[in-house]
Give the backbone structure.
Amino acid sequence: MEEKRDGAPETDEATLRRDMDRRDFVQWAASLSIGATCLLGAVTAANAVNPPGRSIDGKTKMPPTALAAVADLPLGKPQLFAYGDDSLFLTRTEGDKIIALNAACPHVACKLHWDEKITQYACPCHASFFKLDGTKISGPATRNMDPAMFQVAAGKVVVSGFAENA
Ligand code: FES
C-alpha cells in the first residue's frame, strides 16, 4: 500500500485508479503518436504520387482555340500559354515551323518550364529534362514530352487538344 501526499496510507482502490489513469494516458499518447506517424506517412506517399509542384494534368478538352499569331512567337524561344486548366509551349523555329508541346511532364505531370540557361525544358519535381522539340534527355520520365494538336489558320496557331506519346 502506498502513502498519499498527506502521509495517510492510500487504499488499493485509489492506487489502482491512479495506475489506470496513468496507463490510459500512456495508451492515449501512444495512439496519438502512431496516428501522427501514419498521417505523416500518408502525406509523404501522396506527395510522391502527386508532388506539390503538380499543377496540371494535360488532358484539357475544349474547342479549337487560337492562342498566338505565328509572327508574334519569338524564334527558338518556347512561349507558355494557358489552355483550359492546362498549359502548353509554342515555339516558332526556322521556316516558321511550329512546335506545340504539352507543358505537363510525361512523368507525373508537374508543370515543365523552359530553362533559357541550358536551353532545355526542365521539370521542377524530379528533374527530367527535354530538348526544344520535346525529346527526353534525362530523368525519370519514360517518354518524350507529349505534343499538342494544332493547325495554323490565317497566321494563327489554333490548338485543339493534347495527344500522348506511346
Ligand atoms: S513529374 Fe517527375 S520528372 Fe517531371
